[in-house]
């Protein structure tokens, strides 16, 4: 009882919540430092060492891509040069700051959508007090920078600050490829609003198409595209000038043509492993890309009026149907889930049931994967089946979310319930 | 008592001869044995060197590993381990950590053992080794075998390169910093003895058709179902 009351007090007062969540992350970073120094199993993720090594190359005047497996934008290595000049934990501090900032942005977006402060605070605690993003950013993964940028874009879109949104969006696409899937919902949302429908008269199809395409040519959309495009291409040009072809390859082309056949959550993993050297593998790659593309188009069209929901669906679809899927990718859509939750008419029991199902799907995959990697068993077939099962579970959960999404504003809905 | 220059020369020559006799004894009687530990894709290769006779003297020991393409070592893991080890490793080429076995070649590694701190005659080096993904087996076999040859043991000491006709002399880096090459003497060993067998799980190429069909079926059904629901509940 005491714990319950303490917890609810914490999650309702947003300033207290923000401070506490940042402090917890700080403690985790300090603990990680201790564990790294004193135990064999390291707390810090290998990615953090990759970032630091790349930053060290920059301080020596060389290309960060001299560090093998560094496949990110040079911007990240430049940001982390303070790891070398100031302190090794600078990067981690930056990541936990962005992580806590993501929680604050979630709170602000919910408030702007009309939710009352208490509920907004409670929902943003789903991110701020969640051990998963806490663990990921304190271990030194850079995902929180992306989630802060994406949430910042959505906040600016909500507040109608288009130039701001465009800058943040261009930056996020520069850092990772997946936000490019938000381009279509954003474009559809920024179109000129539809004129009154002409009742009764059947408009000619080509006229409909002309109006449709014409609606894309309005001031707001053009502004957004120009600013985002300018940011993206300026950064790309700058880094291409500094680091040449290797920058383009490692940051973009590697991810697009990635043929890492080692086991991962993707349903396509085994198929791609078995056909890696056969002649038809290009066609199979295309066949694997089509469901992803079709679903992205349908999701963007069906939900562009609710931008946060469209972005959430796009990311969840992108990750679930991708040819490579690791647990890091889940954070990409989990940071948008709190924005969707106030609109869901799912009962608490059902919601926790779906969450448990999601974890069970991962557990069913992780068991044979562990036996394959660490215990000398050939469990490839089981891993394949578990990957397909995980896809089915993800789709089931998405269907539940879609069919229980209420598009009345949450404030109004709370009054009527 | 002070010796005349001639006496000093004669006594140092005598020391050299003792030293070279010792060196020849080491070449004849020292042994190296290897063992593979742990399970799965991530293993440890432990090499134990016994110098006989057990007399501490000025000698350098180098283990030359010829690794097959089916395994790799992680240079960054090795760098982080080097703080706790009394051996150091030098690789002859950069290692791609992700490429499958049939798309890459084997590599060499030089492991410099130090006998400075140890009092026993046994020198040990434990190297973490990882299996690469291999081509799927068309015959439906579940494991493929990677053969790891035991390392060549090379010895070097200050002088003593004469009267060693029955031993091969190999050029290798003098120290791990790879700044110069030196002649090393290789210990004779039977070619086939001590080969390590490393079994790596491999995909089943004979089920490629059902896997492709099954995967595409499930993904297409999920795609259709999800699209149907999205269009049904779309917000216009």
TrEMBL record, chain A:
Annotated GO biological processes are:
GPI anchor biosynthetic process
Q: What is its main location?
A: endoplasmic reticulum
Q: In which pathway does it act?
A: Glycolipid biosynthesis; glycosylphosphatidylinositol-anchor biosynthesis
For this protein, the record's InterPro entries field holds: PIG-M (IPR007704)
Q: Which UniProt keywords apply?
A: Endoplasmic reticulum, Glycosyltransferase, GPI-anchor biosynthesis, Membrane, Transferase, Transmembrane, Transmembrane helix
Record's signal peptide: none
State the superkingdom.
Eukaryota
Q: Which residues form a coiled coil?
A: none
One GO MF term attached to the UniProt entry: GPI mannosyltransferase activity
Keyword Transport assigned to the entry: answer is: no
Q: How does it sit in the membrane?
A: Multi-pass membrane protein
Please state the Enzyme Commission number of this protein: 2.4.1.-
Could you name the Gene Ontology cellular component terms for this entry?
Answer: endoplasmic reticulum membrane; glycosylphosphatidylinositol-mannosyltransferase I complex
- Where does the chain cross the membrane? 15-32, 84-110, 221-243, 280-299, 306-324, 353-371, 377-399
First-tier enzyme category under EC: transferase
* Localisation: Endoplasmic reticulum membrane
Short name of one Pfam family: Mannosyl_trans
Q: What does this protein do?
A: Catalytic subunit of the glycosylphosphatidylinositol-mannosyltransferase I complex which catalyzes the transfer of the first mannose, via an alpha-1,4 bond from a dolichol-phosphate-mannose (Dol-P-Man) to the glucosaminyl acyl phosphatidylinositol (GlcN-(acyl)PI) intermediate to generate alpha-D-Man-(1->4)-alpha-D-GlcN-(1->6)-(1-radyl,2-acyl-sn-glycero-3-phospho)-2-acyl-inositol and participates in the sixth step of the glycosylphosphatidylinositol-anchor biosynthesis.
Q: Which family does the entry's similarity section mention? A: Belongs to the PIGM family.
Q: What is this protein called?
A: GPI alpha-1,4-mannosyltransferase I, catalytic subunit
UniProtKB/TrEMBL annotation, chain B:
User: What are the BP-aspect GO terms?
Assistant: GPI anchor biosynthetic process
Instruction: Name the encoding gene, please.
Output: pigx
Q: In which pathway does it act?
A: Glycolipid biosynthesis; glycosylphosphatidylinositol-anchor biosynthesis
- The molecule here is called Phosphatidylinositol-glycan biosynthesis class X protein
**Keyword set, alphabetical order:** Endoplasmic reticulum, Glycoprotein, GPI-anchor biosynthesis, Membrane, Transmembrane, Transmembrane helix
Name a single GO cellular component. Answer: endoplasmic reticulum membrane
* Location of the protein in the cell: Endoplasmic reticulum membrane
Report the main location listed first in the record. endoplasmic reticulum
Q: Which domain of life is it from?
A: Eukaryota
Q: Which family does it belong to?
A: Belongs to the PIGX family.
The UniProt transmembrane annotation reads 207-231
Described purpose of this protein according to its UniProt entry: Stabilizing subunit of the glycosylphosphatidylinositol-mannosyltransferase I complex which catalyzes the transfer of the first mannose, via an alpha-1,4 bond from a dolichol-phosphate-mannose (Dol-P-Man) to the glucosaminyl acyl phosphatidylinositol (GlcN-(acyl)PI) intermediate to generate alpha-D-Man-(1->4)-alpha-D-GlcN-(1->6)-(1-radyl,2-acyl-sn-glycero-3-phospho)-2-acyl-inositol and participates in the sixth step of the glycosylphosphatidylinositol-anchor biosynthesis. Probably acts by stabilizing the mannosyltransferase PIGM.
Presence of the UniProt keyword Ribonucleoprotein in the record: no
InterPro entries, alphabetized: PIG-X/PBN1, PIGX
Bilayer topology annotation: Single-pass membrane protein
Pfam families per the record? Answer: PIG-X
């Amino acid at each position: 009882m005491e714990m319950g009351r303490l917890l609810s007090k914490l999650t309702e007062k947003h300033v207290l919540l923000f401070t506490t969540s940042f402090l917890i992350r700080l403690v985790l970073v300090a603990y990680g430092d201790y564990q790294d120094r004193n135990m064999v199993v390291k707390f810090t993720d290998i990615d953090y060492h990759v970032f630091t090594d790349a930053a060290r190359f920059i301080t020596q005047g060389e290309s960060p891509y001299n560090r093998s497996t560094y496949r990110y934008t040079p911007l990240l290595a430049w940001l982390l040069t303070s790891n070398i000049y100031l302190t090794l934990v600078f990067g981690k501090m930056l990541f936990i700051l962005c992580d806590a900032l993501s929680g604050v942005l979630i709170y602000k977006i919910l408030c702007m959508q009309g939710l009352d402060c208490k509920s907004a605070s409670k929902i943003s605690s789903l991110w701020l007090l969640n051990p998963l993003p806490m663990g990921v950013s304190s271990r030194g993964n850079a995902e929180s920078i992306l989630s802060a940028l994406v949430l910042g874009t959505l906040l600016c879109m909500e507040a109608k600050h288009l130039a701001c949104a465009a800058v943040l969006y261009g930056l996020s696409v520069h850092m990772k490829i997946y936000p490019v899937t938000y381009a279509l919902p954003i474009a559809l949302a920024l179109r000129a609003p539809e004129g009154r429908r002409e009742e009764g008269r059947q408009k000619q199809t080509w006229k409909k198409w002309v109006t449709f395409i014409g609606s894309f040519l309005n001031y707001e959309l053009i502004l957004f595209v120009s600013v985002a495009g300018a940011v993206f291409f300026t950064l790309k040009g700058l880094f291409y000038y500094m680091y040449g072809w290797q920058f383009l390859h490692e940051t973009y082309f590697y991810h697009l043509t990635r043929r890492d056949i080692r086991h991962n959550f993707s349903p396509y993993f085994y198929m791609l492993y078995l056909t890696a050297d056969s002649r038809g593998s290009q066609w199979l790659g295309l066949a694997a890309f089509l469901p992803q593309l079709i679903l992205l188009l349908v999701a963007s069209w069906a939900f562009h009026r609710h931008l946060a929901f469209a972005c959430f669906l796009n990311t969840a679809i992108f990750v679930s149907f991708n040819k490579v899927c690791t647990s890091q990718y889940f954070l990409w859509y989990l940071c948008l889930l709190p924005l969707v939750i106030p609109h869901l008419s799912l009962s608490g029991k059902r919601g926790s049931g779906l969450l448990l199902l999601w974890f069970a799907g991962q557990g069913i995959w992780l068991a044979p994967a562990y036996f394959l990697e660490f215990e000398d068993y050939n469990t490839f077939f089981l891993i394949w089946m578990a990957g397909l099962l995980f896809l089915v579970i993800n789709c089931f959960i998405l269907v539940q979310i879609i069919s229980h999404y209420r598009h009345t504003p949450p404030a109004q809905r709370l009054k009527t319930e | 008592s002070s010796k005349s220059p001639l006496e000093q020369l004669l006594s140092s020559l005598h020391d050299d001869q003792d030293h070279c006799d010792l060196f020849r004894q080491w070449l004849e009687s020292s042994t190296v044995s290897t063992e593979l530990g742990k399970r799965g894709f991530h293993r440890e290769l432990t090499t134990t060197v016994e110098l006989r006779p057990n007399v501490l003297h000025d000698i350098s020991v180098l283990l030359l590993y010829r690794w097959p393409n089916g395994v790799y070592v992680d240079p960054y893991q090795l760098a982080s381990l080097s703080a706790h080890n009394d051996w150091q490793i030098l690789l002859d080429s950069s290692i791609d950590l992700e490429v499958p076995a049939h798309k890459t070649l084997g590599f060499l590694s030089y492991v410099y053992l130090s006998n400075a701190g140890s009092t026993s005659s046994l020198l040990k080096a434990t190297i973490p080794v990882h299996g690469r993904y291999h081509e799927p087996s068309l015959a439906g076999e579940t494991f493929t075998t990677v053969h790891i040859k035991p390392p060549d043991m090379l010895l070097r000491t200050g002088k003593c390169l004469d009267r060693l006709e029955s031993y091969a002399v190999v050029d290798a880096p003098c120290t791990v910093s790879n700044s110069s090459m030196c002649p090393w003497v290789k210990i004779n060993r039977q070619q086939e003895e001590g080969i390590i067998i490393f079994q790596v799980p491999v995909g089943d190429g004979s089920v490629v058709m059902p896997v492709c069909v099954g995967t595409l079926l499930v993904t297409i059904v999920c795609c259709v179902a999800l699209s149907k629901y999205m269009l049904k509940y779309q917000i216009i």
